[in-house]
Amino acid sequence: MFFLMNGILVLIYLLGIIFACVLFTNAIESLGSKLKLSNSATGGILAVIGTTLPETIVPIIAILSSFLLNKPAGLNIAQGAIIGSPFMLSVFAMSLLGICLVFLKRKTLNIDNNMVFRFYKYFLITYSIGILASFIHKFEFKLIVSLFLVISYVFFVKRTLAKAKDDFIQEETEELFFKKILKAKSETICLILFQILISLVFLVIFSHLFVHKIAFISEILNLNPTILSLIITPFATELPECINSIIWIKAKKDDLAVSNILGATVFQAVIPMSIGIIFTPWILPDFILLNSFVVVFYSLFVVLTLLITKKIRLLSLLSGLIFYFGYIVFILLHSL
Q1: Residue 313 host element (H or E)
Q2: Domains of the chain with CATH codes
């Protein structure tokens, strides 16, 4: 009965996240159209700003609890959550697109190859530098690395937005939900921003409740905190990006779906990682370094197949499931 009630609550919170994501994607598309931005900028910048809130908050709270409540485990949880997010996004979330293609009976993604290369380039460079920073022991050098990562992200955003104006193509978007509900005459910026704000409030609340419930169940089952921070927590907090991408793939807006995942991956490789480098010891154990190797290897595999075939094909996406679940099996065996 106990597990049944908790299972029902998890399902309710998940449905709440999905509802918030539907509201959010609807408003973000309208905002991107209003600002005359391309799909890559709408998905990779605008959508990311909102949906990365849950997964960015988790390591910050863990670090604060470590310092304020004298809980040393908080720093390890923060490091696991920071490393786990790019793993979840770059491997599992991309594989999820492949699963969507199977159900939609499609074999490739219709995307802008230049956009994908640009996003992967920034991600692989910044992520690799962030991981290599774990071998640096002087705080001054770590601070320089963190500043470099943040500056790189600012440059990435600036370049993406500049490209967005050139690549903008007016597409028909679904009518704003709040326009229907409030029976407004037009989709004003204020109305769009109001819907985004409401969707983000729901998103943060339901994501927090979902993560809290998952953590509670993990403690009851006596799971290793490393598994929670490295795998379970990112799985919960990255749900907004995953659900957004599913919604956009179903609507045949592949650029929005892919840019949302890759844009969030770039963000996670820079902002949370910069925080981790400065405010945690940032000494990564071997099993986390192996996680990073899996992320880089699979990302390079996708880029290589894209270079050769000029498409992101179903097989290269679904192969990510082997990398993802292969590592999960390893980490479970490692924790025994």
Answers
A1: strand 312-313
A2: 2-335 (1.20.1420.30)
